[in-house]
Predict the structure.
Amino acid sequence: MHCLQQSQIQSLWRRVQAQMLQLFMRLFPWIHATQEGLRFGYQLLYLLDSSPFYTPTLHLLGQNIVRVSGQEMVSEHVFLDLHVGPDPKHCQHYEHQPPSIHVI
């Protein structure tokens, strides 16, 4: 009796897996097309300056991507000077302060 129940459970599980696979294969093209369409729409709106968000994911996260032209970078003189290790010339001074980002 126990053996029969185990085989019935396995058979049921295989049928459920087959149905889930069929459902996935039927829905996947629609889900993928919707996702790609949303991405295209967000990128188009961003390029037309109609939206501050480049992708739906960035919209959900509330993150904005800001475009900066080369001319703006030169006129603003924005350069990052990252210090990742101690400077041998200033070792004593560096030991008391954490690494920092300097904007010139």
Q: What stands out?
A: The chain has four helices and two strands. The radius of gyration is 28 Å.
